[in-house]
Amino acid sequence: MFLSHHFPRVNAGEIGHLVLLDLLLALRCSSGRKALYEPQCRRETVRVTATYWDERYAVSDMLCSGHPNVWVKELAGELPAGRMLDQAGGEGRNALWLAQQGWEATIVDFSQCALDRAMHCAGELSVGKRVHVHRADVRKYQPQSRDYDLVLIAYLHLPPAERQAAIARSADAVATGGRLLVIGHDRRNLEEGIGGPQDDDLLFTPKEVAEQLADLGFLIDQAQTRARLVDTDHGPRIAFDAVVLATQI
Questions:
Q1: What crossing angle do the helices spanning 112-124 and 93-100 adopt, rounded to 10°?
Q2: How far is CA 108 from CA 99, 150, 207, in A?
């Protein structure tokens, strides 16, 4: 059972934009391969097709680093291990790290190449028995209801209706007392930050996600705009992320 007082609590109607600068995370966009592991540093159109992502993963270096997203490490790292679902998890960098912390992790993605690489890395990191993969499109996939202690949606950028539907289905998969963690490029990033989709319809704010989850009966633990320091060829830049952590009650 998760205890909601582990994190600061805010009401959906009182959500502010707390900007946190994490100086420990630096992306080296010049390497190219890093773009698969963090939100992209170059401005390009997001392509939501399995073929595109299969081809992209196939030509990138495989890095079984076990290094998670900084917000996943901070927020999920404090939770007791249980069952987790990584929606559109790609090669599974977050799920693999959580498996190393004792979680039983399931990665859902529509790229078979990504899932194959995730299982390869799970073996390299000696967590193969705790990692499972399922090929599915999260725009349609319905996980089993109330089955997971943690559901993660990280950098899944879809048009509003598809995003809200994916969040609703993911929310239904969270067990009572479990957590839903949503991370993505904040709408503020379009004008002030670097990387991510350059289409306002594909971006969101913490308030938008938190209000949806509150309507679904979740307790909002955190809803913040957070800043990451990104190391680029032109020097350090800032990217703004929307980060929402909520508890199923």
A1: 30
A2: 15, 14, 26
Instruction: Classify each residue of 159-172 as buried b or exposed e, where b means 16 or more C-beta atoms within 10 Å of its C-beta.
Output: eeebbeebbebbbb
Beta strands in 9-82 (DSSP E): 21-22
Q: CATH no. for residue 128?
A: 3.40.50.150
Structure token digits, residue 132:
């499972």
- Structural domain of 123: 4-248
- The model's pTM: 0.80
Number of domains the chain contains: 1
Q: Which of 165, 168, 163, 166 lies closest to 185 in space, CA to CA?
A: 163
State the Cα angle at 146 between 143 and 147, rounded to 5°. Answer: 65
- Encode pLDDT of 139-166 as tens digits: 999 999 999 999 999 999 999 999 999 9
